[in-house]
Amino acid sequence: MGKKDEKGITQLGKQPPRYRFFLNPYQDARFSKCPQCENKTGQRKLPLFIYIDPKQPLLLNKPCRYCRHCDLLIAHQDELEDVIARVFTVLNPEIVGNKYLVVGTLDRADWKRIDQNKLPIQDTIEALHDFKDVVTFKPMWGWRR
Length: 145
Description:
single chain; 3 helices
């Protein structure tokens, strides 16, 4: 098993943790501004490692919002679920709609190497950067249109 971080949570990946992560459940809030510091967010396309119950890993190269001031990475839940449904409707329809967890990110070079060579899950875990922290934000006035 992996080592534990300072909060006592087991780290799956072998690389140092990166980013604070927010899985945005709000379809009407796209976060062009950071929900924490209100600075503008940019876009960062990263390979995300997603674990889908039961025992189904997925590497997804996905654009996310990113606040460099807060080191906050924001993925939109509706977009992730749409891609997961489209991919697995063909490959493995019985897991569509199952619970999933966005575990962390990979460096682009590692993602390409793993994807092109169809390497086993252990290689993915060796290259995985877990998230430093997973955060949530409650809607504030003005988020909704």
